[in-house]
Amino acid sequence: MNLFLSTHGKTFRAEWQKLKRTGIFWLCLGAALFIPIINTLVGFLMDADPSAENAWGSFLQNNFVGFTGFFFPLFLVITMVRLVYLEHRSDTWKLMETQPVARLSLYIVKYEVALLISLLCLIGLLLFALLGGAILGAAKPDTGFVKSSIPWAEVFGALVRYWIASWALLAIQYFLSLLIKSFAWPMTIGLVAIIAGGMFAGFKVLGWFPYSAIVYTSASYKGSNTGGFLLHHELLSLAWAALFLWLGFQLFIKRGFAAAFIRGGRQLAQTLGVIAIFAILFWIVTKPSVSSPYAKTVLTGTLEMDKLPGEVQLLQAPAFNVVMSGKVANGRFHLSTDNAIPKGIYYLRAGSVRMPVFFGAKDSLHVALTTGKRGTELKFGGTRMAENSFLKEYEPGTGYLQNYGHTLTPFEYSSRVMDRWESEGKEIDRYKTVDNVKPAEDFIAWQKKDIGCIFIAAARCGIS
Q1: Neighbour tally for 124: CB within 10 Å
Q2: What angle do CA 447, 449, 450 make, to 5 degrees?
Q3: What is the spatial distance between Cα 195 and Cα 70, in angstroms, rounded to a whole number?
Q4: Which residues of 281-312 are buried (b: 16+ CB within 10 A; e: fewer)?
Q5: Could you report the per-residue pLDDT of 161-186, keeping only the tens digit for each?
Q6: For residue 319, how many other CB atoms are within 10 A of its CB?
Q7: For the chain, which domains are there?
Q8: Rounded to an integer, what distance in angstroms lies between the CA atom of residue 390 and that of residue 145?
Q9: What is the mean pLDDT of the chain?
Q10: Which of 55-69, 130-144, 339-353, 387-401 has the lowest mean pLDDT?
Q11: For residue 25, what are the contacts with CB-CB under 8 A and spacing of at least 6?
Q12: Kind of pairing, strands 364-372 and 297-304?
């Protein structure tokens, strides 16, 4: 360890010097510049979006999301493969090991350099996006840049989360590049994995796949709804990175897959032990949490509206009887009751806005309501956060049954209804929020029953 600490700095500087005349810095510059140029040109060619609440926030988010969906992962793969192939091409691994430095230093500095380059790429993207926004704001005042402010906390939070989400991809590509001593194969595997990761994220499956992490961060650009910093897929990226860095180091010092992992009882036991530790961490991070019942029945919230109402009410359908009501003070309200409220759909009314919420006895629900140019935005917290987030996003797929049911025979129609019912039931079973919170079992059972009623109604409309 003393040798590592004393030689690590020099090893890192030597590794950084190798990047000269490799084109990686120009690649980093081009990657960071590409999307901001396109978005700036689009801003000149198109009319300003009148629904944008914050022109700076929307513009910066569009740049990050547009870059990180495919181009950033591809840039990371190219960078890591090229860093390792520099040694494969010139066959300098053995020469490097003759130097009086720790082997861990020789191994880890390539990963550190890749991390630094990826961070510089993201910072460059931010700087070019800021420059593009400033040019747009000066040339087209109607874009709203002058009247809005830059959400620095949101932007820097997203940048750091993107960076951490990339750690797993870099570590895996490092391992593959050490294992396969060529440029083409690690590059091809990385490209295929990037495409697969994007497709998995699009279908919302295999959320643990390390090449999907950056895409999931884009999908949750504004981060956690509960105040946490890293989301579960970003924490999992750290675990994947630790695993593959260890695997890569074993491969680096043993010079062969069998010697590194399975040859000899001690080596095999060590490999299985590390994988077991990773499996435990994997289970802890990916296991969804379920909120427990609260001690009281409480409904709280914040309102951001042009005209704040004097009070809010919780209504029960179908007669819309008032279950709870309370005054609004400084845009906040707090409702509570000792009555036994059956769990189900209620309607929270705040002025002219009326929204459905799932609520019941011993629930604590927080509602953040914002109305603006883009319409009504809702965020939920508390013990029923996952349930109400699902209801906000869910739309039953009954359109085909309602519009084309008359073209099917009764047997075909009933079969379609059952298939859709089962499909929608699976959707609620696997639903999780960005904070990896799953709806409680009572809501899942209630929702499946409600879905059944919806599809029965659709079936009647389709055959009538």
Answers
A1: 17
A2: 60
A3: 8
A4: bbeebbeeeebeeeeebbbbbebebeeebeeb
A5: 999 999 999 999 999 999 998 999 99
A6: 6
A7: 2-286 (no CATH), 297-393 (2.60.40), 399-463 (no CATH)
A8: 34
A9: 86
A10: 387-401
A11: 19
A12: parallel
Q: Are strands 353-359 and 364-372 parallel, antiparallel or unpaired?
A: unpaired
User: Residue 236: what residue type?
Assistant: L
Q: Whole-angstrom Cα distance, residue 365 to residue 359? A: 8
CA nearest neighbour of 11 among 136, 127, 96: 96
CA atoms of 279 and 370, how far apart (whole Å): 41
CA angle 97, 98, 100 (to 5 degrees): 95
Q: What type of residue is 65?
A: V
CA distance linking residue 193 with residue 198, whole number of Å: 9
Q: How far apart are CA 210 and CA 75, in angstroms?
A: 16
Helix (H) or strand (E) run with residue 345 in it: strand 344-350
Task: Work out the angle at residue 82's Cα, subtended by the Cα atoms of residues 158 and 18, and round it to the nearest 5 degrees.
Answer: 100
Residues 325 and 348: their CA atoms lie apart, in Å, by 9
- Is residue 464 within 8 A of residue 405, CB to CB? The reply is no
Tell me how long the chain is: 464
280: pLDDT strictly greater than 90: yes
- Measured between alpha carbons, how far is 320 from 324 in angstroms, rounded to an integer? 11
pLDDT category of residue 49 using cuts at 50, 70 and 90: low
* Whole-number pLDDT of residue 464: 46
Q: Where do we find the tokens 């499996």?
A: 279
pLDDT of residue 305: 84
Which residue type occupies 151? P
- Separation of alpha carbons 61 and 158, rounded Å: 9
DSSP tag of 341: P
Taking only the tens place, the pLDDT of each residue in 245-278 is 999 999 998 888 888 888 878 889 999 999 999 9
The mean-pLDDT minimum among 7-16, 281-290, 299-308, 379-388 falls in 7-16
Could you tell me if 386 and 433 are in contact, meaning their C-beta atoms sit under 8 angstroms apart? yes
CB 445 within 8 A of CB 387: no
